[in-house]
# Entry
Amino acid sequence: MSAVRILHAADLHLDSPFEGLPAGKAALRREEQRMLLTRLAALARQERVQLVLLSGDLLDSDHSYFETGEELCRCLAGMGAPVFIAPGNHDFYTEKSAWTRLKLPGNVYLFTDNRIRGMELPALGIRVYGAAFTEKRSGPLLTGYHAERMPGIKNILVLHGEVGARADSPYNPITEQELKDCGMDYVALGHIHKASGLLRAGDTWYSWPGCPEGRGFDETGEKSVSLVTLSDTGCALETRSIALRRYEELRVDVTGADPLLAVHTMLPDETVRDIYRVTLTGETDEAPDLNRLRVNLSELFFELQLRDETRIRRSVWERAGDDTLRGLFLKKLRRQYEQAPDENARRAIEQAARWGLAALDRREEAVRHVDP
# Structure
């Protein structure tokens, strides 16, 4: 068998709500997700892949927009190769699901059963197996399964599931022993949003590509899809980024520094397309002016969240002896601070002092506490 070039992607979560963004930017992000499909199809053609494997959760829910379905079908038709889809827990297959409303092109095979099935592609010398989630939860689908080995044929499995998960996981738990015993040459997995790289269990190569683009601060950094080359001599995996934007977190120590200057010093060169959470740390005499920071920094990002995790210098409590409103306020809080039962309670009292001093100075906290 000559080498087979495979494009492996998963967890696009099209039409995600992007709840952590303002409504207008959330709508723009959903539109940009559809553009992700165009770039995925372009990559398939550019790399001249012979097979496309999509391992579930292409849709974020059953309530997808009509134009998303239209774009999905158009781009699948433009892959220039056979496409196999194994629905996951977010886009599970039922007779009433979004999948049945789509007019999938002829080069697409959608697995609709929660039992593993196979289809042979003689021209490529491969047989592609797969199964679907048929509800939000799925027990183990690979347990006890072994594909027949046929001379000159490579066995490939596309599946949504968790490797190494507890046996009672509701998301198709898979063990390494099951991968070793399943009779597959390559297993294309989905569900985990952080890429695994190429792994091996016995004679079975496997991987999950992660999500191709982050949707929140639990999916930070560069994301990608995988290009897999499977041959008689082994398996190789390359990654390609097709993302428009990234989520990034930046922690900045502002001890003894102007917070705005400290943030500017730490920022990378290219941030304007990305969504950032900047967290201020260190010790200060008073709460950083987050309004000032937001006004001066917002244009450098697609969206910015600011968080204040700085701590008041101990010297601030010395002002508790002042015969002023500030002094009386700090005196009361310092008494509570000294009587606090643990570090968490002391930290909460410090934050209360911080907010109180900001109010006395007629400033306002400008931090969002609701994450995407």
Remarks:
- The chain has a mean pLDDT of 93.
- The radius of gyration is 26 Å.
- The first strand starts at residue 4 and ends at 9.
- The chain is about 25% helix and 25% strand.
